[in-house]
Write a structure and sequence with these properties.
The complex is a heterodimer of chains A (534) and B (298). With 534 residues, chain A is an alpha+beta fold. In chain A, 49% of the residues lie in helices and 18% in strands. Chain A folds into three domains: 217 residues, Up-down Bundle (Multidrug efflux transporter AcrB transmembrane fold), CATH 1.20.1640.10; 148 residues, Alpha-Beta Plaits (2-Layer Sandwich); 152 residues, 2-Layer Sandwich (Gyrase A, domain 2). In chain A, α13 runs parallel beside α15, α15 packs antiparallel against α16 and α15 runs parallel beside α17. Chain B folds into two domains: 197 residues, Multidrug efflux transporter AcrB transmembrane domain (Multidrug efflux transporter AcrB transmembrane fold); 77 residues, Alpha-Beta Plaits. Chain B is elongated. The chains are: A alpha+beta (534), B alpha+beta (298). At the A-B interface, α8, β18, α13, α15 and α16 of A face α4, β4, α5, α7 and α8 of B. β18 of chain A pairs antiparallel with β4 of chain B, so a sheet runs across the interface.
């Protein structure tokens, strides 16, 4: 019972691997990670679980450093990061504390305002009296990590499946942020990355005959929970449910402060019935009379622009007046359009990048239209299939013996199939360079099978198993040596940051490994069964 | 029906000098072409956008002389304009417009160009922007990668055979296999890009296979020298011809479809593999024969 299994374990292993690849390629659960709000079948591209890179799906890749300067080995002298940031920011005319970061773990002080030059920063560090080792361009590790998180957040929020962000280091030691978004144009991606949408709530109230505005009654940092944009159930419009933070370590919490401000501006008295409406005119910036009253209004301000103005539900206004609202702090930011609500939710959650991406200066971007990507996908399939046919044709012409040639071609195809399975399993996006790697694998794979076949069949017929095995081992020395050179030649590329080339190198090496460990031994077994007399 | 029979070469008719002369002549010619390129253009090959920096736009227009329209559409004169075939548009014509990076590119250079293209009524299919500093960094990294790959391969070959002349023969023919396609790229106007670098690395992998096979057959197997060579040749030539067939088909099909990267890889590998046939069975054989009959005796 066990004997046949032991005899043919190499072939069985190949069969198992091929079946495993089938599961990875077509089975549910191995597909691309769906973006939030998308189901698994929507994330899938085509009938397989394969993911396609920008070349083959269309999309945009942006690679840029973060602008800023970092002072390294700073003698912080036990001062709190906030105090250091304040002191340095005070010496810079064009940067506020928000643009100065202090990372005690790295003993580093950074400035992230792109208008600050290196010499200005140097002067400010000197003036603030902190000793430092040196100034380099770029920002700290912490800021880079945080930026990556924010970008990932933006990509997820915008519902872009397959989008990725990573840090890469160039050979000169400079760090870059690499963002890849399939299916989006260059400008859309740059807009998504660059928008530093700030959202705040202002209160507009009547001041004599005019209108006054209390700015920043609520700001971005005051929100505790931010819901997703929701279509309003009554009438048009949409809203973002939010919760305002109602606790604070020192002093008044944002929720209490907001509640007091609302009460002070007279909302509870103004909004008593449904007839009380907000009459803010965003063009003139004045509160106009509605039903005989000039009521105070809440203004939703995004990037300094008033997006919407609204009054207040009488129940909510009462709660604010009595002071019970702050216990929950729940609130809705309403807008006229759903898309606007979505944008506000996005801005509130992801917010601004901690440092600017220097896309137009040091950056690199490329973008390919979706239709071109799709065409390339079809073309590369055809090119791959025809190349395999060419190889098959040559092999048939050379051996004229289907017993030798047919298993050769089947084995080479199994190798590519297994590689595709790996690509699906790893979720590695296929690109043109990877396709080239696949074709290279078919080429080297068949080369090695030719070596095996020639070696085994040299010097007459193979009659016994021992003769076969010794010849097969001899052939394998050459194959092993050739595989080792390929792996060595490709390994630097797997780690160097050279974009597409690393995918090519990874799949060539993977293909060689699969070939040497699984498919080529299996071909030997197949050939032995066909050639030796048992 | 055609049968592929690897011909028996009668090596005894030729001296080592005669055998080595042809591949060495090719190598010298290739080095001269590359040297000439350095003198004329300052770079050993036609560097692509990834290595020079700049902006490349792929645009399509509804008709008329697109290339002519492109010349006037931008407020800066493009450095190169070429038309490629593509299925993307009904007219089947896409124009690739390249602007080399300069010292004082304004902010948002790529976006400006895209706006200008849109204003002129083109449909922009793809935009690539590479900054000059990043490009020189990529070039350095790529050169470093190829050098490291070649060095790693050489060290391994020496470790495998542990004899100087046969190992040197492998490394020398691999070097020539790399240099000849680069010279051919210059003559054919193929640009050096990351994709073509990948092709050059593939040549390292492919070419060493047949060299190792030859050395193994001559040095590690029993049998007379010429018999060993012809045995290795039978297998090796089949291998290389199979690969050439795959690459020629890939080059032809890819150029029909306008997939530039795969076409370039196909062309470069076809040339590299032809160079490999020559180098393995002329240069490598002559070095091995010298080693076997004269080198060992000394």
């Amino acid at each position: 019972m066990l004997e046949p299994i032991k005899e043919n374990w190499r072939i069985l292993l190949l069969v198992v691997v091929v079946l495993g690849s089938t599961v990875a390629l077509f089975g549910p659960g191995f597909g691309p990670e769906p973006a939030p709000g998308e189901n698994a079948s929507e994330a899938q591209q085509g009938i397989t679980n394969l993911q396609y890179g920008l070349d083959l799906a269309g999309g945009t890749r942006v690679r840029a450093p973060l602008s800023g300067y970092t002072a390294t080995d700073v003698a912080l002298g036990g001062e709190s990061p906030e105090a250091v940031a304040d002191a340095v920011a005070a010496e810079l005319d064009n940067a506020s504390t928000r643009n100065v970061g202090v990372v005690p773990d790295e003993s580093a002080v950074e400035v992230t305002d792109p208008t600050v030059t290196e010499s200005q920063f140097r002067a400010a560090m000197d003036a603030a009296g902190y000793e430092y080792g040196g100034i380099r361009s770029g920002v700290t590790q912490e800021t880079r990590d945080e930026t990556m998180n924010v970008i990932q957040g933006k990509i997820n929020e915008a519902g872009l499946s397959g989008g990725s962000v990573q840090q890469v280091q160039s050979i000169t030691g400079e760090y870059f942020i690499l963002v890849e978004v399939p299916g989006q144009g260059r400008q859309e991606v740059i807009d998504l990355l660059e928008e530093r949408g700030t959202v705040r709530i202002d209160i507009a109230y009547t001041d004599g005959n005019g209108t006054a505005v209390q700015e920043g009654a609520l700001i971005q940092g005051d929100f505790d929970e931010i819901g997703t944009a929701t279509q309003s159930d009554r009438g048009p419009g949409a809203y973002v449910p939010v919760t305002v933070r109602n606790s604070d370590d020192d002093g008044q919490s944002p929720a209490h402060a907001f509640q007091d401000a609302v009460a002070q501006r007279g909302f509870p008295d103004a909004y008593e019935t449904q007839a009380d409406q907000c009459g803010y005119n965003s063009e003139t910036g004045e509160i106009e009379e509605v039903n005989g009253d000039r009521n105070p209004c809440l203004l939703l301000v995004v990037d300094g622009e008033v997006i919407n103005s609204f009054g207040m539900d009488s129940g909510l206004a009462d709660d604010m007046g009595t002071g019970s609202w702050a216990e929950t702090g729940r609130f809705r930011l309403t807008t006229g359009e759903f898309a606007e609500a979505q944008q506000i939710s996005l801005n509130l959650r992801a917010g601004a990048l901690p440092a600017d991406l220097d896309i137009s200066g040091e950056g690199t971007s490329s973008s390919i239209s979706a239709s071109q990507g799709e065409n390339f996908r079809t073309y590369s399939l055809i090119i791959g299939v025809l190349s395999v046919f060419a190889v098959a044709g040559m092999v048939f012409l050379r051996y004229r013996e289907p017993r030798v040639a047919l298993p050769m071609i089947v084995t080479a195809l199994a190798e590519v199939y297994t590689l595709l399975g790996f690509a699906a399993l790893l979720g590695y996006p296929l690109e043109l360079a990877v396709i080239a790697g696949f074709i290279a694998v078919v080429g080297t794979g068949v080369d090695d099978l030719v070596i095996i076949a020639d070696q085994v069949m040299s010097e007459g017929d193979v009659s016994s198993r021992t003769v076969f095995d010794s010849r097969f081992r001899q052939a394998f020395w050459v194959i092993g040596a050739a595989a080792a050179t390929t792996i060595i030649a490709m390994s630097p590329l797997m780690v160097l940051s050279l974009g597409d080339l690393s995918g090519f190198a990874i799949f060539t090496v993977l293909g060689v490994l699969i070939g040497v460990l699984i498919t080529r031994p299996a071909y030997g077994d197949i050939l032995r069964r066909l050639l030796t007399v048992r | 029906m055609v049968v592929i029979e690897v011909p028996e070469v009668n090596y005894t008719d030729y001296s080592n000098r005669q055998l080595a002369a042809v591949p060495l002549a090719f190598l010298v010619l290739a080095l001269a072409i590359i040297g000439g390129w350095v003198v004329a253009t300052g770079a050993p090959a036609n560097m692509g956008l990834e290595f020079t920096g700049g902006v490349e736009l792929r645009v399509a227009a509804d008709g008329g002389d697109v290339e002519q329209q492109v010349q006037t559409a931008f407020d800066r004169e493009p450095d190169s304009v070429r038309t490629i075939l593509s299925d993307d548009v009904d007219e089947g014509r896409v124009v690739v417009v390249t602007f080399q990076a300069t010292e004082n590119d304004p902010e948002g250079f790529a976006s400006n160009l895209q706006d200008q293209a849109d204003a002129a009524g083109f449909t922009t299919l793809a935009v690539d922007q590479v900054s000059a500093s990043f490009a020189s960094d990529t070039a350095r990294t790529a050169l470093f990668g190829v050098a490291l790959a070649f060095l790693g391969m050489s060290v391994l070959v020496f470790a495998l055979f542990r004899t100087f002349v046969p190992s040197l023969a492998v490394v020398a023919s691999a070097f020539s296999d790399l240099v000849i396609p680069i010279a051919a790229m210059n003559l054919l106007g193929i640009e050096m890009t990351l994709g073509t670098i990948a092709a050059l690395l593939m040549i390292i992998g492919y070419s060493v296979d047949s060299d190792i096979l030859l050395n193994d057959s001559v040095l590690r197997r029993t049998g007379e020298f010429y018999e060993s060579v012809s045995r290795a040749m039978r297998t090796g030539v089949t291998m290389t011809l199979t690969s050439i067939a795959a690459m020629v088909v890939m080059a032809i099909v890819a150029s029909v479809f306008g997939v530039g990267l795969l076409r370039d890889i196909g062309i470069i590998l076809s040339i590299g593999l032809c160079a490999d046939l020559m180098n393995t069975y002329l240069l490598n054989v002559s070095l091995l024969r010298w080693y076997k009959f004269e080198g060992v005796a000394r």
